[in-house]
Amino acid sequence: MQRWVDMSPRQWQEFINQEVCVSARDQHSFTGRVFTVDPVSASVVLVSFGESERPAVTLVLGHAISDVQVLSAGSEQTRSRMRSVFLQTHTPTHTLSADELQRRRESVRRWLQDNRIPVQEDGELLRVAHALTISAPYGPGDCSCANQIILARVQSLLENNPETSGDALTNESTQGSG
Amino acid sequence: MKTPVGVLRLPRGPEPNSRGFDPNSPRFQALCSTSLTSSSSSVDIEEQRLRAEQREHFLRALLLMTDKRVDFQLLEKLRMRGRFGASDIDVLNFQVSDLETPLGVQKEALLRCHDIISCAFEL
Predict the structure, then answer these.
(1) Which of A31, A38, A63 to mutate to test the interface with B (most CBs of B within 10 A)?
(2) Chain B window 67-86: which residues touch A at a Cβ cutoff of 8 Å?
(3) Strand partners for B99
(4) A106 touches chain B (CB under 8 A)
(5) What does the pLDDT look like over B65-121, one tens digit per residue?
(6) In this predicted complex, what is the ipTM?
C-alpha cells in the first residue's frame, strides 16, 4: 500500500464512511468511522458512537499514520448519522413556510437597500453587489462570499437589522476562507 | 497538578528573511507541486471538488473541537489533557489552554503537531 500521506483525495475518499483501524506510531491503533481526511495534513477524523450515545471523535495526525485497514463498509444511514454530528445546520429552512421565507427575504432586501447596498433577488437567493450571496433563512450565517471584507461588512449589517435582531437568527458567523 | 507554571519560552516568530510562505510546507506541496512538476495533466475538477469537501469537513471537525477538553496522545507514550483553542492553516501547531503537563498546568501552550499522534474528545 502506498504511504498514507502520499495518497490523493480520490484514494482517501475510498475510506470515508468506512469503519477502519488506523495504525500509528508507537504501536497505537485507533478504530472508528472515517468522517473526513484533511487533504493538507492527511489527518483522519474518526467517529465512534459509544453506549452513552455521546459521539467520541479522534483526530489522528497524518504524519503518524502507518496503515489504515477497512473493517467494514458504511451505509447511507451511517453517513447521515455522521453528518448530523458535524454538519449541524442552523434554523432548518424546511420548518419555515414559504411565506415566512419571503417575508424575511423582503425584510433583508429592504434593509440592505436602505443602507445603499445593491441587492437583487434571484429566486430564493439574494445577490449582493455581484459578490456575495445570501441564502435562506437570510441570517448573518447564511452569507457566502469570496471576499472577507465584504463578508464581514454585510454580516455586521445583517446583525444590526432592527427587524430581525429580535429573532433567534443569530449564530456564530463563519469567516470567509479556511 | 493545579499550580500554574510560568511561561518558560515564547514561541519563535516567522522567518524574517522569507517572503512569508514556506515552499517546504505541506500546503505548498499539495497545492503548488503539480504546477511545478507536471505540465500536461492538470488536477481535474473532481479531485479539486473532493479536496475542497474533505478540507471543509476537516475544518468543521476542528471547529467542533474548539474549547473542548482534549486528550492529546504524544510521542514517547506521553499523554496530556488540555483545552483546544485553534490550529494554524497547515496543521503544524495547535494552540491549547490549561495544558496538564508532567511539570504542572501550563496556562497557554503551543503544541507542535509533529509531536502529536492523536487528539480525542467527546461531544
Answers:
(1) A38
(2) 73, 75-77
(3) B106
(4) no
(5) 999 999 999 999 999 999 999 999 889 999 999 999 989 999 999 999 999 999 999
(6) 0.72
